[in-house]
Amino acid sequence: xxxxxxxxxxxxxxxxxxxxxxxxxxxxxxxxxxxxxxxxxxxxxxxxxxxxxxxxxxxxxxxxxxxxxxxxxxxxxxxxxxxxxxxxxxxxxxxxxxxxxxxxxxxxxxxxxxxxxxxxxxxxxxxxxxxxxxxxxxxxxxxxxxxxxxxxxxxxxxxxxxxxxxxxxxxxxxxxxxxxxxxxxx
Amino acid sequence: xxxxxxxxxxxxxxxxxxxxxxxxxxxxxxxxxxxxxxxxxxxxxxxxxxxxxxxxxxxxxxxxxxxxxxxxxxxxxxxxxxxxxxxxxxxxxxxxxxxxxxxxxxxxxxxxxxxxxxxxxxxxxxxxxxxxxxxxxxxxxxxxxxxxxxxxxxxxxxxxxxxxxxxxxxxxxxxxxxxxxxxxxxxxxxxxxxxxxxxxxxxxxxxxxxxxxxx
Lengths: 186, 215
Known about the structure:
heterodimer, A: alpha/beta, 5-stranded parallel sheet, 5 helices, 8 strands, globular, B: mainly alpha, 9 helices, 84% helix
């Protein structure tokens, strides 16, 4: 499903990590843990195709959904318009029913600038699963979520296991239960 | 491409940062030129240079709009996840082009009114301004695309844009001064040059942008 072979990332002369290899198969969830600055988010960005590795190779999944607190949404667009934009660019239906699924139906036409952190996280979930990806990459997915949001995260992870694989970076003990495999970056 | 254009247009309609800034720059430039030329009648060459200065000031704000703003806001990752670089470049180029043409449609009549010049050859003047604006949008989109992800992109944009924008301004002034009445036959040649230059920028843009898009 997704395989990384001796990947590393360097900024200037400083290596963030080197020699990282893993394989995540169908239905599995790889937990990425490590101290702040160990490179968890950078590794996830590489898996999502947002950054190239400085060495090694990573790939395998045809479609990747990505959700991270670092991901910024367009403040002037609504949730519905985000799904339409992503759908048009990806060449898939906008699937606005997803907003019902993530609990944003009532706010579908409000601008994202009026959303709370938790609501933005829900919209990012909807965008990440819009194309029913083979691989779901989640960076600190529980950050800013209320109880309902955490229940939604549980559902999404269960659903993704049936469809493909998951890579999840977290230091939250409550989210460790999702992991089948663990990669610790130090 | 259409989706990126639509996104830019909707954001602009709701925020109105780009068009207001461009119009403000252009209006202030035209007003200053109008005051400076109040007691004189500028030559066709000078008038052409003045109008292009106003258009350039209005357009230059686009250099930091679209591509650079996308990275500064942190929303570039969304497009990297969803779109191919070519679609992003084309969508943003079309948006920049539409905005610059819109601004030119307002600024050019104001310039004629304030500075007191009118074209002798209307077709050449309209073609020079329209094609020049499209070439300007292509040049600005190319520069913005190349520097957006670089550290210190403000300074880099200035350095890169000078050699890219100079030929556009040179040809634009060349066409417009003949449209304003200076003797010569090279007006349409300059317009053809602008078409070629714009086409070259637009053709190279997506490839160069793709090279820096995910670095």
